[in-house]
Amino acid sequence: MAAQLEQIYHCYDQALDWLDTHRDLFDPLTEASENPSSEIYLTKALGELGLLCMLYYRRKEGDVDPRIQRFLQLIESVWEQPQYKERIMRRPDYFQIYTMIYIVLQQCNVISEDYKAMIQRVINQGYVTATETTPMRLLDRHHMLDCGQFQYSLPSYEEIYHQTLLAHNPELVYVTDTDVYAITHTLFYLTDFGRAPCTILQGEHLATVQWTIEMLLGIYLRNQNWDLTGELLLDCYCLHWYPDPLCQLAWEAIGNHQLPEGSIPGPRYSQEQRETLDETASIHYCFEENYHTTIVNALASFLIYQDLKAASDRDEK
């Protein structure tokens, strides 16, 4: 157990170092180009960095990691810019991403609830809860509004879940990468990222869900897709269930493929392509291809490390 814990923590530590070194690239106000897709991509990246901070705060023990503090300082500096805040009112299509930034800062005790009333007014207008979306995205919206303790009108988690792909026990031979992302995220939101027991997942259906996650983890580990491998490991944390030896093999493989500077290769990352670029282009290429995979695995490794360490400490008593 000690060796496995050390391996998992090393993955987290190296990943966080890389994210810290490149944290300025998460700023959508300085990095966004005239291309609108670039702006939304960078705003999404900042939100994912914020999620890492929020879930870290939930499970931290003792002092806050200085790297997490620097991430929060960056996120706060972006949030405090008037042109950023006003987008919640002016761009309802971006509402969820911008509101998540507010929730992260509020839950990490960086800002007060002063802005909550304005966000609630946008919700009360009805647009952001009425727009059509997939069941998984509706669970995402439900979860976010619950995290912020907002008042809203949406179907229950159980009603939404029964419309998801995961609830229908899909044949794995047919699922696509997009389907697997829908499956992993469904479990994130149902369990509040492992924080809340999920009464929907019980008995035979829970066993089927666990089997699905285990099979997919084996498939994506074999395919060396570290993005979905990381998300599936995070699902294991959400269920507080770690099928061995598969989980151990996954951490060994991720550690072996983590790049020397700490990032974890995304599905489209190519070392050969990177080597053709100059230094600046190489930095941006690596960030664009690897930031999400690195955040996912940093998050999974931190949370699983905390879970396994707590279990190990209990066993020693």
UniProtKB/TrEMBL annotation:
One Pfam assignment: DUF6895
Domain DUF6895 residues, every copy: 12-301
InterPro entries noted in UniProt: DUF6895 (IPR054190)
Organism: Dictyobacter aurantiacus
Full protein name: DUF6895 domain-containing protein
